[in-house]
Amino acid sequence: MSLPHLLWRNMMHRKTLSLLTVCSVALTVALLVFLILCSQGVEQGAEKGYGPFELTVGAQGSSTQLALNTYYHVGTPTGNIPYEVFAQLEKEEQAEAVYAMTTGDNYNGYPIVGVDAKYFLTRYGDKKLEAGTVYLRTGEAVVGSHIARTLGVKVGDTFRGGHGLLHEGEPAEEEEAGESHEEHEAHAGFLYTVVGILPPLHTPDDRAVFTTVDYAWAVHHSQQGEHKDVTSVLVKPRSLLGAQTLKTKYDKLGNAQAIYTSKAVADVVNVVDKGSQVIRIVTMLCIVLAAISILLSLTSAVNERKKDVGLLRLIGKSRTFVWLSLIGEGLLLTLIGLLLGLAAGHAGSYAGRDALFDFSGIALDVWRLPGEEWLLMLGTLVIGALASLWPAMKIYRVDPLQLFRS
């Protein structure tokens, strides 16, 4: 009898316990795979989430809230600042590129962002649109690839926006958010036309609708003349010294704040890492439980295997064959659980990636195997081998004749 056939027969002899052991390993591995992919998504999003805009100017308030709303389209703006702040920044020699941004409205829950179309050239280079052209006039819009895929939006489609970050068609919630009847009428009377679809950028910009900066002024007729406001200003400084000079200067304004974008994003990542530590502790407990399940499964099989092991040793099977027959069952159970867990982790992440991206802006690179995942595979097999070792040594050290007689 070959070794693989013997291992398979032993495992099938105790189907229920074997299945439970495989499931415990698979669930633990799947959870770890999802956590690894999420951690990788957060790190990649933090690295390229704000592009070259090392400085951001916005209303007084939380710097992390300002960065998250401006670049990740998450949460609400900290407020508005006068248009004159943007006009002044445009004239600064230390600023290589400056873009005003207006936010606060949504299309089916996705944020509508007003920004000059040159923003895409500065941030993404000369990438071509997936379809159509960039917006030039008020009311024209370019839609992110995620929105186009999720909602089936095409060039030439028209839509109306809603106030705030609520879904359209929820008037009760809009009223709770403070939208007046006049504001509702203003949004209902303003029609957007889709003139372009962005290519997949793998950033939160995939889940936003972009249009001209003055859309907010056109919708909210109260903002006219000298009272125009913007939500934030994105600044690409010419140098680090220039960024420091601009920050110092605009921090002194009483109606605005200037933040280092990278620092604000790093603060968010640190908070996420602290939360992930709690999840890692729970996951470690799952790993321990999976190892215990393997140990209990093999220990309970020791008495059943005594006669088989004694017979193998009496008929002259090599020490290596006998040894592998003892620890091989645990390794086989671990390997099957590992493969099922990897498949389940990646498949589950793929199934939920759009929902996660909608909710948090975290993009998962589902089909890539990061270095941590290779370590996970190795560690899982090592734990399976260690859990199999004690039952194997317990039965292997007994005299073969005594094993057979028992």
TrEMBL record:
Q: Where are the transmembrane segments?
A: 278-299, 320-344, 374-396
In the bilayer, the protein is annotated as: Multi-pass membrane protein
UniProt xrefs under InterPro entries: ABC-4/HrtB_transporter, ABC3_permease_C, MacB_PCD
User: What keywords sit in the KW lines?
Assistant: Cell membrane, Lipoprotein, Membrane, Transmembrane, Transmembrane helix
Limits of the ABC3 transporter permease C-terminal domain: 281-400
What domain of life is recorded for the organism? Bacteria
Q: What is its main location?
A: membrane
Task: Note the subunit structure.
Answer: The complex is composed of two ATP-binding proteins (HrtA), two transmembrane proteins (HrtB) and a solute-binding protein.
Q: What does this protein do?
A: Part of the ABC transporter complex hrt involved in hemin import. Responsible for the translocation of the substrate across the membrane.
Instruction: Name the chain's protein.
Output: Putative hemin transport system permease protein HrtB
Which species is listed as the source?
Answer: Paenibacillus konkukensis
